[in-house]
Design a protein that fits this description.
By secondary structure, this protein is mostly helical. The protein is 83% helix and 0% strand. The chain is built from 18 helices and no strands.
Length: 417
C-alpha cells in the first residue's frame, strides 16, 4: 500500500493533475473577497456616508492582510501541509463575510475585511497554493502555476456579476451573509482533499549533492546579493500592481461617474478578469519557453499600453474593449514572479521567497486601490489616476529590463570565459 501511494503521489502524476484541478476550485472560492469588495464600494460608500478614498480603505487593508497572511499561511503549510491553512481560511472567510454583512460602521467593516477576509481567509487560498503547485510539477511547471493562479481571475470573472445581481435584489448586507455561508462551507469541504504532502519535500533533502552545483549558481541571483535581488523583485511587484489596481478596483465606480451605471462596471470587471484567465494560461505556456523574466517584461509592457488606452477613450463600447485588452495583457504578470524565484533562487527557499514576492504584489494592489481613490478625491477625475498607474508601470518594466540585461550579460561573460 505504501508503494502504491508513493507512486500515485509523484510529481506530474495523475494525482498531481487532480490536485491542480481542486486547487483551481479552492482559489476560485477563496479569492472572492478580492473582487466582491470592489463591487460593494458604491453601496458601502452610500451606506456609511464616507469619501471615495475612505470607501477604498476596506480593499486596501484587505489586500495588506492578504499579503501578510500569505507569508504566515505559507509557513504554516510548510510545517503542517496546506490542508490546515485552508481549513483555517474557510472558517475565517465565512465568519468574515457574515461580519461584513452585519457591520454597523465603516470601522467594523474595515476590520472584518482586513483580519478575517484578508489576513486569515483569502490569504490561505493564494500564495500557499501557488507554492504548493510548484512543488507538484517538474515538467510544464509554468503552465501548472498559471492554471493555479488563474483561479484568482476565475473568481474575478464569476463573483462580481453574481454579487451585483444580489446587491440589486436583496441588498449588499444579505449578499455578504449568503456568500459567507456558501464560501465557508465549500472551501472547507475542498480543503479535506489536500492531505498529501508534495513529493519535492521528500526528494530534495535526500539528494543534496545532485543540486550542489545549482545552489552555487543561485547564490547570487542576477549577479546580485540574495537580499538585493529579492528586494528588486519586491519593488517590481509593488509597482506593477499599483498600476494593475487602478482599473480593477475602480472600474465600477468609474462607470458610475461616467453615467453608465454600476452594473456596466461590474460586467467590465468580469470581462477584464475573464480575459485575465486566458492571459495567465497563455503566459504560462510562454513562460515555459522564454522564462519568467521575459514573460514579466512582456506583460508589463502590454499592461502599460492598455493603461494608455484608457486616457483618450471613455465611451461605453471602447471601455468594454479596453477592459478586455487590459485583462488579456496583464494576467500573466503575477505568476511570472513565482517562476522567476524558482529559476534564480535556491529551490529549498522557494516557498518563503515566493510568498514574500507575492505579498509585495498584494501590497501594490492595496496601495494602488487606495491611491487611485485619493487621486480622484484630489482632482475630481480618474484621468490623473490612470497617469499615476502608468508611471508605476514604467518602474516595473525598468526593473524587469535591468534584471534581464544583467542575466544576459552574465551569460555572455561566462561564455567568453
Amino acid at each position: 500500500m505504501k508503494t502504491f501511494e508513493t507512486s500515485a503521489h509523484e510529481a506530474d502524476s495523475r494525482y498531481a493533475m487532480l490536485r491542480l484541478g481542486l486547487t483551481l476550485l479552492v482559489m476560485t472560492v477563496g479569492s472572492s473577497g478580492m473582487y466582491v469588495v470592489s463591487v460593494m464600494l458604491p453601496a458601502v460608500q452610500a451606506e456609511f456616508g464616507v469619501a471615495r478614498a475612505d470607501a477604498s480603505l476596506p480593499y486596501t487593508l484587505l489586500m495588506l492582510g492578504f499579503g501578510v497572511g500569505g507569508v504566515l499561511m505559507g509557513k504554516l503549510a510548510d510545517r503542517f501541509g496546506v490542508m490546515w491553512p485552508l481549513l483555517i481560511g474557510a472558517l475565517s472567510l465565512g465568519v468574515g463575510y457574515v461580519a461584513c454583512g452585519m457591520a454597523d460602521g465603516i470601522v467594523s467593516f474595515i476590520a472584518a475585511q482586513a483580519v478575517l477576509v484578508g489576513l486569515l481567509g483569502s490569504a490561505a487560498a493564494f500564495a500557499p497554493l501557488v507554492a504548493d503547485t510548484s512543488l507538484w510539477f517538474v515538467k510544464r511547471r509554468g503552465i501548472a502555476v498559471a492554471v493555479c493562479a488563474s483561479g484568482n481571475y476565475v473568481a474575478g470573472a464569476i463573483w462580481p456579476p453574481i454579487a451585483q445581481h444580489f446587491i440589486e435584489t436583496v441588498g449588499w448586507r444579505q449578499t455578504y451573509i449568503g456568500m459567507g455561508l456558501f464560501c465557508g462551507l465549500a472551501m472547507a469541504a475542498l480543503a479535506l482533499f489536500f492531505r498529501a504532502r508534495p513529493p519535492a519535500l521528500a526528494v530534495a533533502p535526500a539528494d543534496p549533492a545532485g543540486h550542489a552545483g545549482r545552489r552555487r549558481d543561485m547564490t547570487r541571483p542576477f549577479g546580485l546579493s540574495m537580499g538585493t535581488a529579492q528586494g528588486l523583485l519586491c519593488v517590481a511587484g509593488v509597482a506593477c500592481c499599483v498600476a494593475m489596481a487602478m482599473p480593477q478596483v475602480h472600474i465600477v465606480a468609474y462607470c458610475g461617474d461616467l453615467g453608465y451605471g454600476a452594473a456596466q462596471g461590474a460586467q467590465m470587471l468580469s470581462l477584464m478578469l475573464g480575459f485575465g484567465v486566458v492571459s495567465r494560461l497563455v503566459s504560462g505556456a510562454i513562460c515555459d519557453r522564454i522564462g519568467g523574466l521575459r514573460t514579466l517584461l512582456l506583460g508589463g509592457a502590454l499592461q502599460g499600453v492598455a493603461l494608455l488606452l484608457f486616457l483618450p477613450f471613455d465611451g461605453l463600447v471602447p471601455l468594454y474593449v479596453i477592459s478586455a485588452l487590459f485583462g488579456l495583457f496583464q494576467g500573466g504578470i503575477v505568476p511570472s514572479y513565482a517562476i522567476i524565484v524558482r529559476e534564480h533562487f535556491p529551490p529549498e527557499e522557494a516557498g518563503a521567497r515566493v510568498g514574500t514576492v507575492l505579498m509585495f504584489t498584494l501590497f501594490g494592489m492595496a496601495l494602488g486601490g487606495w491611491m487611485s481613490g485619493k487621486v480622484f478625491d484630489l482632482t475630481g477625475s480618474y484621468h490623473a489616476a490612470f497617469l499615476n498607474g502608468i508611471g508605476w508601470n514604467l518602474l516595473n518594466v525598468s526593473i524587469a529590463a535591468m534584471l534581464l540585461f544583467r542575466v544576459r550579460h552574465l551569460r555572455l561573460r561566462a561564455a567568453a570565459a
